[in-house]
């Protein structure tokens, strides 16, 4: 038996070693990612309050969900988050191009631009809640009169999205800065020798080398927009009148406040399917462009 192990092909031993190294990560991924997804999917077909026995209801949770106006409000707000938060990648790219210079003091400027990203969502929510306060907020000093942004159903979602853009832009900026530092300077120099400059150089020479950074910034921004929760919980609590709620907060609201775990699992499944469709589409585009 030992001789067979010693004389095993080198490729087979490498595969075995690689699997042994990957095994802990695969186990963790299966326990903390795959199992919760399958468990939520199964739970969505039951009525369960977390204490009593589960009762099978089939597609009743989904039927109720698709007839609930709050669900469509949350879905509309998620689309609004998705559209407006997509401003973060191009703004982050603009900041990255500006900060990618060898100028004295640029490291300090980079740290100031990046500082909003290291703050927690709760802190950002409190800062912007004070900023929007109609009695003493900074917005009142800028505009000249108090505007109840978080108390108005027409403004609350936009105010929270603006707060979310504050840390998301520097996150995209860091991704693009990383991509810019890893670019091939010879390709840029060749483009300049061919007469490319300004927007032409950016579009035809720089951006093609930043495809991976663009993919990561867009994908992570979309995921952040679809799973937005902390700012809404801190700033508005989904109100007023559920006008600023999103699917993630709606799921939390139904499970934690009303103990409807089967119903909240159905919301989680719908949110997971929406995210899966987009991520699959983005991955196929990336693989096609690379091939």
Automatic annotation (TrEMBL):
Signal peptide: none annotated. Keywords: Cell membrane, Membrane, Transmembrane, Transmembrane helix, Transport. It is a multi-pass membrane protein. It comes from the Bacteria. The keyword Transmembrane applies. The chain crosses the membrane at residues 21-46, 79-99, 111-132, 155-180, 201-226, 261-281. Residues 74-282 form the ABC transmembrane type-1 domain. The keyword Repressor does not apply. InterPro entries: MetI-like, MetI-like_sf, UgpAE/MalFG_permease. It is found in: Cell membrane. Belongs to the binding-protein-dependent transport system permease family. PANTHER family: BLL4140 PROTEIN. This is ABC transporter permease.
């Amino acid at each position: 038996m030992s001789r067979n192990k010693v004389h095993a092909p080198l490729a087979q031993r490498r595969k075995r070693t690689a699997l042994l190294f990957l095994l802990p990560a695969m186990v963790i991924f299966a326990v903390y990612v795959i199992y919760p997804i399958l468990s939520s999917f199964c739970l969505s077909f039951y009525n369960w309050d977390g204490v009593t026995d589960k009762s099978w209801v089939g597609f009743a949770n989904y039927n109720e969900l698709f007839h609930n106006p709050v669900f469509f409000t949350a879905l509309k707000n998620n689309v609004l988050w998705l559209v407006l938060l997509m401003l973060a990648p191009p703004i982050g790219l603009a900041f990255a191009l500006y900060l990618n210079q060898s100028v004295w003091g640029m490291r300090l400027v980079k740290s100031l631009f990046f500082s909003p990203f290291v703050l927690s969502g709760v802190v950002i929510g409190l800062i912007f809640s004070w900023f929007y306060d109609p009695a003493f907020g900074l917005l009142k000093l800028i505009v000249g009169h108090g505007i109840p942004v978080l108390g108005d159903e027409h403004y609350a979602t936009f105010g929270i999205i603006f707060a979310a853009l504050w840390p998301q832009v520097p996150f995209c900026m860091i991704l693009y800065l990383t991509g810019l530092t890893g670019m091939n300077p010879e390709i840029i120099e060749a483009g300049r020798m061919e007469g490319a400059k300004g927007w032409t150089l950016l579009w035809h020479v720089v951006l093609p080398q930043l495809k991976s950074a663009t993919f990561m910034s867009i994908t992570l921004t979309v995921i952040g927009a679809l799973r937005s929760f902390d700012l809404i919980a801190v700033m508005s609590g989904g109100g007023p009148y559920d006008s600023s709620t999103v699917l993630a907060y709606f799921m939390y609201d139904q499970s934690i406040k009303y103990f409807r775990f089967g119903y909240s699992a159905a919301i989680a499944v719908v949110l997971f399917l929406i995210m899966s469709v987009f991520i699959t589409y983005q991955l196929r585009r990336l693989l096609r462009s690379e091939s």
